[in-house]
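Is this the right way to post C-alpha cells for a design question? Let me know if I should format differently. Anyway, here goes:
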C-alpha cells in the first residue's frame, strides 16, 4: 500500500479558485495543463472544471483542423459542451469544407465568430460575402479592425 501523500498548500486552495487558475493555465498551453495534471492527482480532478474546457488553448489543432477529424474526439466534445470558440472554429472547418455539411459548419463558424475568435470572424465573414450575405460578412470583417490596422489581414 502506498503512503498517503500530503497536499501542498496550493492543492489545499478551494476548488473554485483552483479551477480559475487551471483555466488560465489551459488558456496558455494544453501541454502545461497536461503537465500540471500529471504532477498532482488533486489538480487533475479540478481540471474538469467547465472554465478549463471553455478556455482551453487549441491553437495547434486550429492551425490544422483536419488532423483532428478522428483524433481528440473526447477533448473536442468536452470543449464544445463548454462553448470553446477555437473548437467551434475547428468543427466549422471540418463540417463545412471536409464533410460538406455547410449548415452545421456555418453554425460552428458563426459561434466562433460571435465568440470573437479572429480566424472564425475572418472565415465566417468571407463565406458570408461569397454566399451573397454582404452585410453579415462585412459586419464580422469590420470587427477585425482592418480599416484601422492593415497588418491585421496577414494575421488571419
Amino acid at each position: 500500500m502506498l503512503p498517503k501523500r500530503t497536499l501542498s498548500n496550493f492543492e489545499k486552495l478551494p476548488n473554485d479558485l483552483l479551477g480559475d487558475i487551471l483555466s488560465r493555465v489551459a488558456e496558455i498551453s494544453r501541454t502545461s495543463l497536461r503537465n500540471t495534471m500529471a504532477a498532482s492527482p488533486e489538480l487533475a480532478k479540478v481540471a474538469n472544471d467547465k472554465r478549463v474546457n471553455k478556455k482551453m488553448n487549441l491553437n495547434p489543432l486550429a492551425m490544422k483542423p483536419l488532423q483532428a477529424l478522428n483524433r481528440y474526439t473526447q477533448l473536442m466534445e468536452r470543449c464544445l459542451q463548454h462553448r470553446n470558440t477555437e473548437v467551434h472554429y475547428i468543427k466549422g472547418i471540418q463540417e463545412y469544407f471536409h464533410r460538406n455539411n455547410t449548415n452545421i459548419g456555418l453554425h460552428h463558424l458563426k459561434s466562433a465568430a460571435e465568440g470573437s475568435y479572429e480566424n472564425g470572424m475572418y472565415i465566417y465573414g468571407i463565406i458570408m460575402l461569397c454566399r451573397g450575405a454582404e452585410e453579415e460578412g462585412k459586419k464580422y470583417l469590420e470587427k477585425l479592425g482592418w480599416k484601422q490596422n492593415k497588418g491585421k489581414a496577414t494575421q488571419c
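Format looks fine. Someone answered above. Worth noting: The mean pLDDT is 90. The first helix runs from residue 15 to 28.
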